[in-house]
Amino acid sequence: MHLVDLWLTRSLSMCLLLQSFVLMILCFHSASMCPKGCLCSHSGGLNVSCSNANLKEIPRDLPPETVLLYLDSNQITSIPNEIFKDLHQLRVLNLSKNGIEFIDEHAFKGVAETLQTLDLSDNRIKSVHKNAFNNLKARARIANNPWHCDCTLQQVLRSMASNHETANNVICKTSVLDEHAGRPFLNAANDADLCNLPKKTTDYAMLVTMFGWFTMVISYVVYYVRQNQEDARRHLEYLKSLPSRQKKPDEADDISTVV
Ligand SMILES: *[C@@H]1O[C@H](CO)[C@@H](O)[C@H](O)[C@H]1NC(C)=O
Ligand SMILES: *[C@@H]1O[C@H](CO)[C@@H](O)[C@H](O)[C@H]1NC(C)=O
């Protein structure tokens, strides 16, 4: 009887231990489950492939150990801030062929330093936040987007590590200077510093100065004419008053000598 009792309590505790073990495994497994519509494989790190999966947004349940992430050829329109921040091992991110329009400041927060390849080509990006690519070490592909070339884009491209290669393929769909539309960014940025457009600003300064001078001259002329009119009127009045004083010709002589 005693032995059976002992055995029972032992097996019970074993059972509990086993159960918690199974639960732990289940929990761990669910944490690294493959997102819906994606294929996960191990080829030099976790490869999460969600290409062509009709995704409207970036899955929020990406496994934290993801190394390669293919989200290309979907209908993703935005990159929420900090969405990749837990993917500390992410090296390749492909967002090509989507409908992304804008890259916000913290889109790549947490992965900017580890990312080696970033593909944003074939989207609808016109502009990015001026700090969006800060600290980004990756080779970035940003071609085939309807870029608006302005000071911000110039600053962003100049701050990127691999900027020359990246900037090479940027075509200005629109620009602060109309004549840049349709031209490669590098070409446009070569003949004008987009953050310091000298022609326009000097034109503006010239205009302001000229306007100032013009106003001064006009007000002086107006003042002068008025003053003269006043003087002339006074003089006329004085002359008119002269005949009544003609009794004193010596005084009239005095005035004529003064005048
Ligand atoms: C990642 O997985 C996809 C789909 O299984 C495959 O086509 C691709 O070649 C893999 N990438 C690498 C670098 O192994
Ligand atoms: C990203 O995906 C596009 C479309 O499938 C492909 O053409 C491109 O080569 C990929 N880029 C990288 C860096 O793998």
TrEMBL record:
It is found in: Membrane. Residues 33-68 form the LRRNT domain. The chain crosses the membrane at residues 204-225. Pfam families: LRR_1, LRR_8, LRRNT. SUPFAM superfamilies: L domain-like. Keywords: Leucine-rich repeat, Membrane, Repeat, Signal, Transmembrane, Transmembrane helix. Residues 1-27 form the signal peptide. Its main location: membrane. Belongs to the LRRC3 family. PANTHER family: ANTIGEN BSP, PUTATIVE-RELATED, LEUCINE-RICH REPEAT-CONTAINING PROTEIN 3. This is Leucine-rich repeat-containing protein 3.
